[in-house]
Structures are given as C-alpha cells and as structure tokens.
Amino acid sequence: MSHVRYIDKTREYYKAEGYERSYEWAHFEAIPFTPFAALGKPLAECRVGLVSSGDVVRRDIELPPDDPRRLVYGLPADLPVDRFQSRKAAYDRYATTLEDVDSFLPLTHLHRLAAEGVIGGVAARFQVIASEYSQRKTLTVDAPEILRQMREDGVDVALLAAV
Amino acid sequence: MTFGCARDIVESCGVPRFVFSDFPLGNPTGRPHDPDSQCAIVRLGLDLLVKATAPGTTVVSPYEWSPDHSWKERVFTKAQPFLDPEATGKWLARKEHYRELREQGQI
Q1: Phi, psi angle pair for A77, to nearest 5°
Q2: Which tens digits make up the pLDDT trace of B52-93?
Q3: For residues B23 and A89, is the Cβ–Cβ distance under 8 A?
Q4: SS3 of residue B97 by DSSP
Q5: CB–CB of B30/B21 below 8 Å?
Q6: Bridge partners of residue B60, in order along the sequence
Q7: Inter-residue contact A119 to A43 (CB < 8 Å)
Q8: Is the CB of B3 less than 8 angstroms away from the CB of A43?
Q9: A36: Cβ–Cβ under 8 A, 6 or more apart, which residues?
C-alpha cells in the first residue's frame, strides 16, 4: 500500500470536525541546496547538529512553566537518551509509541557514528522546535534561532528529525 | 537532511534532502526498540547528505513497519481521533494564546 496522504486526510478530517478553513501546508517553489562538497571537508571531520520537533524535555530536572511563545531551546546532546522524553501528543498513538527516544532523536546512534569516525562529532546541543501553525514564526523566529545556536556550536551539517 | 514519516507534507514543503520512513507518525529515525534499523536509517541520512546532487531528493527507507498496512487506513478517522480530548484542549488554548501574543506584538 502506498504512503498515507496526510494533506488530503487532515483536510477531510478537520472539515468533518467543523473547521471551515483548511490548513495551508507550507509549500515552496524554490528549495535551498548546498552541495556537500562546498563544505570542503569530509563527513568524518564534520560536526553534526540535530533538530527535533518531538517536544523533547529532560526527565531529570524540574521543568519551567510552559512559555506560551514556544521558542526554540537547546538541550545538551551528550546526555544518555534515557534522560529525555517526548511530551508530544501529535503522533500516531494508536500504531506506535514515543517510548524509545532514539526512534525520533537518534543521539545514541550519532555518538556511536562519531566514535566510529563516520562523523567528526555531535554538536554540544540539539535544538527543539515546537510544531507551529504559524509558518511566519517558523521562518522568522525559530529558524534564525536554530541557525544562531548551530553557528555558536560550530555545526557543519544539520539533521532534522520531524516527528 | 530531514528524517520524516509524512512524505506528502515534507515533499510539498520542499527540503534539500529527505529520508522517508513509511512508518506511523512518531518514529522518523526508526522503529522503537530496534537499534540496528535505527542506526541504518541514520546512516542512510548521512549518506544522502554527502551524495545528493539536487534539492528535493528523497530516499525511501527499506524498512517496513508491518506486513499489515491497515494502520494507514485508520489514520485521521473518526474511529481514531488524532489528538485525545486533553491534547485537543491544549492545542486550542495554545492557538488562542498565540493569537493574543501576536496581536500584542510580543511575537
């Protein structure tokens, strides 16, 4: 069976729920692209950054109250993944779980690949971005903050795990 | 390089490089408690990172969630509300709060 058509499915689902206006999914005609060769170094020397939309929080510290602005935040990437958990509600809770952090935030594997010399290293922080209905916020607030943090951490290449 | 499970959404948006797993929403980097396949998917992404020659390149993960694909038919149906009532309430409250913050010029 082919993959799920989420755009069509959500349109029908929320229309049936009584929402009159369909959500407009992000769509760009032009897609940015940087060839890997432009970095001028091999992957084995690259520091890898990671972004998650999985509403990841630490288990081992008390969380501050929810900030309604839902800004990007960085968390230390060198902690074992069992120190983290996802608070995300928007996933297929009937078919799967978010119990195994590496299934949506592959820090264990990135550290292993760094130890094997496949990548140069893992950035000190990974970034958590909230799932937003505002594309404007994603573009003008969240993305620049991720870029700022990644530059501060000397990231060469970035991975996004979209939950 | 993007890992994801919603192929149509990611491809409609357009990203430079995409590893698609035909899995339920939630596990873009592999099946839970299956570290070998998780690591293989991460390797696929790193390989694509290096080898892609054009934007919008999708690589499909070879891993199948289950021989039974019926989960796909049940996604976003009345029988399986996507968010539970508590999450729906939070979502609506967040949307309203966000609208207020925006009107106040705080975001």
Answers
A1: -90, -5
A2: 999 999 999 999 999 999 999 999 888 888 888 888 888 888
A3: no
A4: helix
A5: yes
A6: B20
A7: yes
A8: no
A9: A43, A157, B49, B50, B51, B52
Pairing mode of beta strands A125-128, A47-52: parallel
Query: What is residue A161's three-state secondary structure?
Result: strand
CB of B82 within 8 Å of a chain A CB? The answer is yes
Q: Which residues of B touch A10 (CB under 8 A)?
A: 76
Q: How far is A123 from chain B (nearest CA, A)?
A: 15
Highest mean pLDDT among A17-21, A75-79, A89-93: A75-79
Query: Which whole-number Å values give the CA distances from B4 to A15, A26, B62, B87, in the listed order?
Result: 25, 15, 14, 22
Cα gap B65→B24, rounded to integer Å = 8
Tell me which residue of A25, A16, A52, A4 sits closest to A133, measured CA to CA. A25
Q: Please give the helix or strand (H or E) that residue A73 lies within, else none.
A: strand A73-76
> What's the average model confidence in pLDDT over A112-132?
96
pTM of the shown model: 0.94
Interface test with A, best of B23, B76, B77, B91 (most A CBs within 10 A): B76
Q: What's the number of CA atoms in the CB half-sphere (13 Å) around residue B45?
A: 30
Pairwise CB contact (< 8 Å): B87 & A26: no
Closest to B78 measured CA to CA, from A9, A141, A103, A13: A13
Tokens of A124: 């000190």
Interface contact flag, B32 A96, Cβ < 8 Å = yes
Max Cα–Cα distance, chain A, nearest Å: 53
Q: CB neighbours of A147 closer than 8 A, spacing ≥ 6?
A: none
Contacts of B52 in chain A (CB under 8 A): 33, 35-36
